[in-house]
Amino acid sequence: MSSPQILLIRRARIILPNGELMIGDVLTRDRQIVEVAPEISQTPPLATEVDAEGLTLLPGVIDPQVHFREPGLEHKEDLFTASCACAKGGVTTFLEMPNTRPLTTTQQALDDKLERASHKSLVNYGFFIGATAENLPDLLLAKPTPGIKIFMGSMHGQLLVDGETALEAIFAKGDRLIAVHAEDQARINQRRQEFANIHDPAVHSQIQDDQAALLATQLALKLSQKYQRRLHILHMSTALEADLLRQEKPSWVTAEVTPQHLLLNTSAYETIGTLAQMNPPLRSPHDNEVLWQALRDGVIDFIATDHAPHTLEEKAQEYPNSPSGMPGVETSLALMLTAAMQGKCTVAQVVNWMSKAVAVAYGIPNKGAIAPGYDADLVLVDLNTYRPVRREELLTKCRWSPFEGWNLTGWPKTTIVGGEIVYDKGQVNTQVRGKALTFL
């Protein structure tokens, strides 16, 4: 019988579940937190001790929207490289999207991803089931999954479900969470013709404009209200959508925003070109401010990265042949903690938006807080040191970031998954493996 895995973290600045700060110790045993106290006097036999003096201890980040590209697109990313990047960024759990090859639209494809992750992922994992116009039985029965992903726009092939009749059929049956990429494909198609033969990537934000986002979000809300169906709006990007939700947001609807939609805007096209291209696109500085306010006010519930890497060679193609998407798991926590240090929010709010609120929304038990009985998924961050984002230090396979050169604080020093140290002082422990999530 193997000896128990025991970890004792000493003298950390602990963010407690109520948001208060306590300097103290945390003891974990066999994947769970067993004690949180100002001081744990006795060091248990066989315990690994971590001196966390001067560091802040947070629950591990749960990133609820990533595209890790396996199977089928492993030249961009795979479950191993992506989970290494997660560990470095303080992300201890992820929810991954279905637009891989083959698409995750059946139980068989879901099982294949779960099997791959069990061998390759250093952090905890869950996988969405993707909606098509024909796979309603799979959407009702596939498990375990955090929910159904619907691409209402910005997609082609089977995963594009943009007709109201097909959408209504999905909303009308079952009670599983539906997460929508809300962009109106008909408007995008029309705008694409209007702006044809323009190769400036900045036109991307005009083609997939704020009206395209608003129209789709309005439709998703209408169907959700008609059937009282649990709805989650992915990567909200516009002031129009935030204002809509502020006026009418049922208790069963949640929404998320990405760091890039909070911190980048259309001016980024001038400096980084197609590296700023994503779906939904970057918006105006006004949209940045309205989204921040909606997040602080609880109109938007939490943060996701929409980590969607492409190679630099792919990104170097002329618009519109350049693909949309950017990496994010390595920088999201440091970006948000830097924003907290700048007074845009508090560290306790960051913890809620990146851990606790995600666990609550998706029914992930025992995650998102530092308290006895919770899983020992933790990250120690340094809020006193600033360091720039450097391309050569990134672990994502694509090896670039839209935030390259940004000077950030809150970089993880140590990341812990299930009571095991998976990242420490710049080194990844590739022997650690995360666990498949369960959903209540």
Strand content: 15-25%
Total strands: the figure is 20
Gyration radius from CA atoms, angstroms: 21 Å
Which structural class matches the secondary elements?
Answer: alpha/beta
Distance between the termini: 31 Å
Low-confidence regions: none
Q: What is the overall silhouette?
A: globular
The number of helical segments is: 14
Sheet with the most strands, sense and barrel status: 9 strands, mixed
Helix content: 25-40%
Give average pLDDT, whole number: 97
Layout: helices, strands, pairs:
Elements: E1 6-15, E2 21-29, E3 32-37, E4 48-51, E5 56-59, E6 61-66, H1 79-89, E7 91-96, H2 107-120, E8 124-127, E9 129-130, H3 136-141, E10 148-151, H4 164-172, E11 178-181, H5 185-194, H6 204-207, H7 210-227, E12 231-233, H8 239-247, E13 253-257, H9 259-263, H10 268-272, H11 285-297, E14 302-303, H12 312-315, H13 332-341, H14 347-362, E15 378-382, E16 387-388, E17 407-408, E18 411-417, E19 420-424, E20 427-428
Parallel strand pairs: 1-4, 1-5, 6-7, 7-8, 9-10, 10-11, 11-12, 12-13, 13-14
Antiparallel strand pairs: 1-2, 2-3, 5-15, 15-18, 16-17, 18-19, 19-20
Overall description:
The structure is a single chain. The chain is of the alpha/beta class and 440 residues long. The protein is 30% helix and 21% strand. It contains 14 helices and 20 strands. It has helices at 79-89, 107-120, 136-141, 164-172, 185-194, 204-207, 210-227, 239-247, 259-263, 268-272, 285-297, 312-315, 332-341, 347-362; strands at residues 6-15, 21-29, 32-37, 48-51, 56-59, 61-66, 91-96, 124-127, 129-130, 148-151, 178-181, 231-233, 253-257, 302-303, 378-382, 387-388, 407-408, 411-417, 420-424, 427-428. The strands form 4 sheets. Strands 1, 2, 3, 4, 5, 15, 18, 19 and 20 form a 9-stranded mixed beta sheet that branches. The longest helix has 18 residues, at 210-227. The two termini are 31 Å apart. The mean pLDDT is 97.
